[in-house]
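Q: Hi! Curious about what CLUMA_CG012606, isoform A looks like structurally. Here's the sequence.
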Amino acid sequence: MQTTKLVIHLDKHEQISRLNMPGDQGTLDSSLGAHKNHFRRQASSFGPVVFKSAELLICIICIGLFDDPANNSRFRTFVGTRTIALSYSTFGTFTTVCLAFLIAKALRDNVPWKYSTILNLAGFFGFAACAVVIFKDWSDTKERNYWPPNTTRLDLTCASGALSTLNAVVFLVDSLFVMRLGARGDLP
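A: Let's find out. The predicted structure is below.
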């Protein structure tokens, strides 16, 4: 059996052409992958901060809206004492939690994603419960048919319940966002 040997001699100026593969450095695919990873890193660092800022703002607005119907009902009861206790404890607790999270991020400290997800789910359940009891008291007050009705306090109660519902949704979306990034390994 005879074997042949193929020898290619190249001069200095001759090159064998190279086929670019997906993901090679300097190709379009690698630059798209780099942008995708950059976007993912940006989302993992700024996404939770944006959510916590929105949650903190809604918590503060809920406290402001709920204060007048809860404290200034001299002759008529607009909200019950259990509703006041649940609402103030939820609003105050999650104002503190969101503020602590934002301070930790400002100091470049990492909050574990599992811990953040548990707090977000607790916020979802807390604000959903607040919305339910606030709307129930609002409905009970409307059915009493006091004349003349104090529509300002009824409107404040309804707005506080609506923003509690909104904040429950924001907490739920934040927990899903954090769980997704944490499961991918983009969050510590």
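A: A fun detail: The radius of gyration is 29 Å.
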